[in-house]
Each structure stands twice: as C-alpha cells, then as structure tokens.
Structure to design on (143 residues):
C-alpha cells in the first residue's frame, strides 16, 4: 500500500532545480509533495509525483541519478496535535522514522504526510489500527 517516492540527486548549483521542475512540467508530471536537503556539492530532492514512470524516464534520460523508494503516506486531521498523534502511534509500535514531509495539497479538513520509516508494513498496520487512513499512489493521482 506504500507510496513510491522519487529521490533525485541534484548538483548544488544555480538552475539545477529549475531544470528538474521544467523537465517534469514539459511531460505533464505534477509534483504533489517534495523535500530537498543539501550539502555543499549536491542536494537530495525527494518527491511524490503524479506519474512515477514518466518522471523517472524523463529525469533518467536527462542524466539525473535517481531511485524509487517505498514510503508511507498518511492522511491526518488538519488541526493542532493530529501529527503528534500519528507519530505517537509509530513510537508506541517501536517504529523508527527516518524523515517526514508534507504534501503541497491539502483539503479543508485533512493534511497529507509522507513518512520514511524503518518498516513500512508495520507502520501501515499500526496507523490503520489507530484509525488513520493511508494514501496510495492511486490517491495521489486523484489530487
């Protein structure tokens, strides 16, 4: 049930990010969530996109180094404390979280969060058992 995350290694130089976003836009790929971390020489761009196959093919063709990673997508209430409750579920289940970031899309009542955890299946089971709704690549395509 996990989401596919596209991780792209980007040179840390002017114009590098716009090259990626332009390439995706030219192929009608919408970025639904993203996170970027940088070092002096390169950045790590993590994205949830509307079409993984087209995005991967497009960026690979343009010479970018990338990989697909399974992550957990969870819908949480858009109110103070709701993220904390989801994170507490993982903590109670002794599931280590490596990182998280939020979707750019939100509704009036919900926010969407991407979680990279040590064990996707265990995290998904714990979150669902606690009443959280998980999101899939099919859900992302509808946003």
């Amino acid at each position: 049930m996990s989401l596919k995350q596209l991780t792209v290694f980007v040179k840390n130089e002017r114009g590098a990010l716009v090259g990626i976003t332009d390439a995706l836009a030219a192929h009608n790929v919408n970025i639904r969530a993203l996170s970027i971390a940088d070092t002096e020489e390169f950045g790590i761009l993590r994205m949830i996109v509307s079409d993984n196959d087209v995005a991967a093919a497009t960026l690979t063709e343009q010479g970018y180094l990338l990989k697909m990673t399974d992550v957990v997508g969870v819908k949480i209430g858009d109110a103070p404390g709701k993220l904390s409750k989801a994170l507490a579920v993982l903590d109670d289940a002794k599931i280590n979280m490596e990182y998280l970031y939020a979707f750019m899309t939100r509704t009036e009542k919900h926010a969407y969060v991407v979680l990279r955890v040590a064990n996707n299946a265990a995290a998904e089971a714990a979150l669902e058992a606690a009443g959280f709704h998980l999101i899939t690549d099919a859900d992302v395509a509808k946003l």
